[in-house]
Design a protein that fits this description.
Elements lengths: L1 E5 L5 E5 L11 E9 L2 H7 L10 E2 L4 E8 L11 E4 L9 H4 L25 E4 L2 H4 E3 L6 H4 L5 H11 L8 E5 L3 H10 L6 E5 L3 H9 L4 E3 L1 H11 L5 E6 L4 H10 E9 L11 H4 L5 E3 L8 H9 L9 E6 L3 H9 L1 H4 L3 E5 L13
Parallel strand pairs: 9-10, 9-12, 10-11, 12-13, 13-14, 15-16
Antiparallel strand pairs: 1-2, 1-4, 3-5, 3-7, 3-16, 5-6, 6-8
GO molecular function, one term: zinc ion binding
InterPro entries: ADH-like_C, ADH-like_N, ADH_Zn_CS, ER, GroES-like_sf, NAD(P)-bd_dom_sf
Family: Belongs to the zinc-containing alcohol dehydrogenase family.
Length: about 350
């Protein structure tokens, strides 16, 4: 098969790779119908995730069809159309029993495109298939459903739910990339009084506004704007969706006393927590890897057309255009890329085009 293989920091290629095979009775082999590129993949290529060994097929998001299952798989069978979760859970360990699948201690958690070969390929082996695959109706387009592999569960669980967004809150989302935009969509489910989107890129701020942000600001404008909107108190909830030290530190300055800061961004280096300024403000700061415990709920909402997923897809490609898609996604400030979707050309629900 062909796959996008990580060959060390700064190096990857769409090349021949070994076809995956069932290695455990709980495995399933899925033929990839659509996949996408995540900011985490860029972090891996930058060398920020050193435990990813060279030779690993990247990617942790996909929609596809089951072609083979191990003897212990009961929930899906060959021919089924499925959503592949970015998180694999054994279903038996202490954390899985608490629905904290991201912390699975029995070989699960975030493993696709991290500790084992991932989804940016023609085929992928999915461990713990009964817990990691979700049956997908034929009526749901692959380009929409693939956004529920990672970004929507991540934004919803790690941003909105951990931030405890409540009716009437002022919510600030720092970073209007795919995760930040999904957080804006998710926050609206809880009726906040206002949502402020912060990003240096005008095109992303416009996307945030289209998704329901009530106010937009560049990083330089954000702190005075939030102070003005809240009478100087600060935001009830601030969601960090960038993963840079300066954005995290700005978030700590914009949250009100007793407020909540939910860090979603993937940090490749240390950030300073100024406890000398923050300890007496009763702040709650949360971090987290997604558990994907909300995937079934979000999938039902998608099926019922209650999630604005289509607005996040800006570019579509064929699988064989993986390297071009990475280039477009990595230069988002120039190309305006939010989510890029890659799929096979014969699938009608993907309107394949390439960016100029």
């Amino acid at each position: 098969m062909k796959a996008l293989v990580f060959n060390g920091p700064g190096r990857s290629s769409w090349q021949d790779a070994r076809d995956p095979a069932v290695q455990d009775p709980a495995d399933a082999i899925v033929r990839v119908e659509a996949t996408t590129i995540c900011g985490t993949d860029l972090h891996i290529l930058a060398g920020d995730v050193p435990d990813v060994p060279p030779g690993t097929v990247l990617g942790h998001e996909a929609v596809g069809r089951v072609v083979e299952t191990g003897s212990a798989v009961r929930a899906v069978r060959p021919g089924d159309r499925v959503l592949v979760s970015c998180i694999s859970g054994c279903g038996r360990c202490r954390f899985c029993r608490e629905a904290a699948y991201g912390q699975c201690t029995e070989g699960g958690g975030w493993i696709l495109g991290h500790r084992i070969d991932g989804t940016q390929a023609e085929f992928v082996r999915v461990p713990f298939a009964d817990m990691s695959l979700y049956s997908l109706p034929e009526s749901v387009p692959a380009r929409d459903a693939v956004l529920l592999s990672d970004i929507f569960p991540t934004a919803y669980e790690v941003g909105v739910l951990k931030g405890r967004v409540r009716p009437g809150d002022t919510v600030v989302v720092v970073g209007a990339g795919p995760i930040g935009l999904a957080a804006i969509a998710g926050a609206q489910l809880f009726s906040p009084s206002r949502i402020v989107a912060v990003d240096p890129a005008a095109i992303r701020l416009e996307a945030a506004k289209a998704l329901g942000a009530d106010a937009i600001a560049t990083p330089a404008e954000a702190e005075p704007l939030v102070a003005d909107l809240t009478g100087g108190l600060g935001a009830d909830v601030v969601i960090e969706a960038v993963g840079l030290p300066e954005s995290f530190e700005q978030c700590t300055r914009m949250v009100r006393p007793g407020g909540r800061l939910a860090n979603v961004g993937v940090h490749g280096g240390p950030a300073t927590l100024h406890l000398e300024d923050a300890w007496f403000r009763n702040l709650t700061i949360t971090t987290g890897l997604v558990d994907a415990s909300s995937t079934a709920t979000l999938l039902q909402m998608l099926t019922d057309r209650r999630l604005p997923v289509a607005a996040l897809v800006t570019h579509t490609f064929e699988l064989g255009q993986m390297e071009e898609a990475y280039d477009i996604f990595a230069r988002a400030a120039d190309t305006g890329a939010l989510k890029v979707i890659l799929g096979e050309p014969q699938h009608d629900e993907l309107t394949l085009r390439t960016a100029a």
